[in-house]
Specification:
Oligomer: single chain
Order of helices and strands: HHHEEHEHHEHEEEHEHEHEHEEHH
Strand content: 15-25%
Structural class: alpha/beta
CATH superfamily of the largest domain: Periplasmic binding protein-like II
Number of strands: 12
Number of domains: 3
Radius of gyration: 23 Å
CATH architecture of the largest domain: 3-Layer(aba) Sandwich
Helix content: 40-55%
Low-confidence stretches: 297-319
Mean pLDDT: 84
Distance between the termini: 49 Å
CATH class of the largest domain: Alpha Beta
CATH topology of the largest domain: D-Maltodextrin-Binding Protein, domain 2
Length: 322
Amino acid sequence: MNLDYLKVFYVAANNKSFSQTAKDLHISQSAVSIQIKQLEEQWECQLIERTTKKMALTPAGEILYKQVKNLFSIINETTNELKELKGMVHGDLKAGASLTIGEHVLPFVLAKFNQLYPLVKIHFSIYNSGQIIEKLKNQEIYVGFIESMLSYPAIKQVPFAEDELIVIAPPNQSFTEKDYVSIHELLELPFIIREKGSGTRQVMEDILRRNQVDPANLKIILELEHTEAIKSAVEAGLGISILSKSAVKKELELKTLRRLKIEEFRLLRNFYMVYDEEALPLTGKKLIELMSGLYVPSHEKSAKDHYGISNGLKTSSNLIDF
């Protein structure tokens, strides 16, 4: 039995696409077809039904998929136990995060992880939430970090920190001289917003709806894909925006941006770490342990005391303050 062939079959079954499997595994599409064909010849049964538009598992393929998933889980668990027995954490850590978390939260955590486990080689990339789930399913990454929960029950989704979205405005008080705005006033101001599909925009719109505010009533003048572009546009006086407090900490300190507080409510959300428990290697487990230590109740020891991280969570509120 060839484990490499089984991995190709497993990834193809998840992707439901030979071409995507070839891209994910960095092999040719013909190699994917050949390896699955060899498995079919070995067991003398068809595993995948192929059509011009889609592929699907046969009953035999469903059985093999279930057993291969169990097999990889056993191999992964055995590898973890043997590494822990030797008292060493080494190998690769593959992680992915959404833009806000990846740029403003994870670098501090990964720096601490590197101090704790210097033998681990860290691979870290920025993806959108959908890409993170797909890469977890195909075991291209071990742990992902997203800004809102998704409907994937097979993937573990655990909150690790609470974040606050805040209204930012130009420093020159061109739109309002007050430090507070009402919802009615907010709807009258020119608004710069992240593109549709972004985690920050989705969470912002969800919170506004829960507070009886229709996001469609915002006076949107500009949509941008990157946080840095939004900050520059607000600094230039084009309008106001709502971003993660962690993403504008430096600008608020330098007073190139200023914060407007909403009178009626605060915009709070959780950040989530996501992973497949059955396919999690030891390096991934250690990263999750570190992140779990950062998310502590206010009556317990602060993250700074526990891990020595100066840019940690506020002891009083669990709001992330990177």
